[in-house]
Every structure is written in C-alpha cells, then in structure tokens.
Request: fold
Amino acid sequence: MLTITPPPGQRRGQAGLRRSLTTLLAAMAAAAALAGPVAAQSGDSAPETVQSTTTIPRAVELGDVEHGRELWEFECAACHEMGPGAGDGIGPQLNRVFGRRAAAVADFPYSDSIRRMGRDGLYWTFRTLDAYIENPYALVSGTRMSYAGLDDEGDRADLLAFMRLYSDQPGDIPEAEPTARRVEVELPPEVLEIRGDREWGEFLASECTTCHQRDGAAAGIPSITYWPEDRFVVAMHAYREGLRPHQVMQNIARRLTDEDIAALATYFATIDD
Reply:
C-alpha cells in the first residue's frame, strides 16, 4: 500500500481533516439510512417529483390498506393501473403518484386543464389527492376524469393508504411529506347556501373578465361562463385555502368575502339572463 506522508507544515491540520471527513461520511450514511430503499415500479418513467425542504412531520397512519384495496377495485381499477407492469389506459398509470407533479406521465393525453394545473405547481400530496378524489371538478374544473367523487372521508383515507403502497414503501419512509396526513378545511354547508346578489356579482365581475371571456372562450384561460354555482364557490374557496395553485387567483380569492364569491357564482351561472 502506498503511504503519502504530508510535509511538516500540513501535519497539524491532518487530524482535523480526518475528523471532518469522518463526520461527513457518517452524515451521508445516516441520510441514506433515513431515506431507505424505494421500490421501483415498472410502467413508470420517473415523472418529476416534489422535493420537500421543510421539516419532516411525524408519521401518521393514512387508513386501512385492505379496505383501500377493495375500494381501488371498485372505484378506480376500470380506468387506472398500479403495480409491476402498470401502463396507461383510460387514465394514466398511478405508480409513484404521491409527490408527482400533475400531468407528468409522459405521452398521456391529459386535458388542457390538468396540464395547466401542473404548470401552475399542483403536486399530488395526500391533501390534493384527497380533494381530487372527493370532487375532481372542485380541484381541476376542466378535468376529463368521469368520476362523481368519493364522499366518505374514511373511505378516501383507506384508498390513499392502499395507493401509497405503490409510491414509496411505508415501512421505509412512513413520514415522507407528500403522504403525511393534513387536516383539511371543510367548507361549511351554510357557505354553499348563501344566495348570491347577481347585480353585485356583475359589478365584481369586471376584474374577472380582464382574463376570463364573457362569451365562454377559453384561449389559454379556462372559461367560467355557465359554471354551476356550487362548483364556482368550491373552486374559489379552494384558491383561498391554497389548495388550487395559482398565485393571482389565490390573492383574488382571499380578498373576496363569502358573499362576494356567491354573488360572482350567481352572475356567471346566469350571465346571459
């Protein structure tokens, strides 16, 4: 073995250098152990995933995996595939969906709406998947996913617990940020029952129609003309809560009161009346 002896002037710092290298190698080993092995799934071309820079939260059980497996077969399997050999069908394959940017599976013919949401920064986390499964149109208004939604919160948690198995192994990194369960803010029923003032909505709409066309044209910006009122209200509250990604829309929604949102919903639902 070749041994290199440093010149006398460099020997003093050699022990410190060894200690620094030892500390660095130990930190790298600890980080690798924390990350754990991630099971590769065939049928997945490794779409872009979110890199969290926040503190890793405490692990929380998502739900009953076995019940989620049953729900998957009944609710999802007709259109989506997961597991070894999964491919795209009516819907995209969902291997490693947690932490993935929306509309990131290569060559899948997504709707313009969900592509736009992906460009705006929508990533699939427990929170956003839970909202999408509950009501797809509340999160992505122009989605082509023909699914009425899953109302029961416990059922959604169970379904997501099963889907989690095909993203990262829960035994390895159960506390990974994209699947840590967060408390979802629910829209009170009385908010949906507010009767909008159409004239006030028409006045407020002048800000909206600087981008959204009154005639329903959607040249790069989604149409909101003739939206059902409840869908409009839910969408605006999703922006207000930061669930829908778009900084301009989030800022606008946070300036509006519940009554303002209801008034706009009434106006755009009946714009030609």
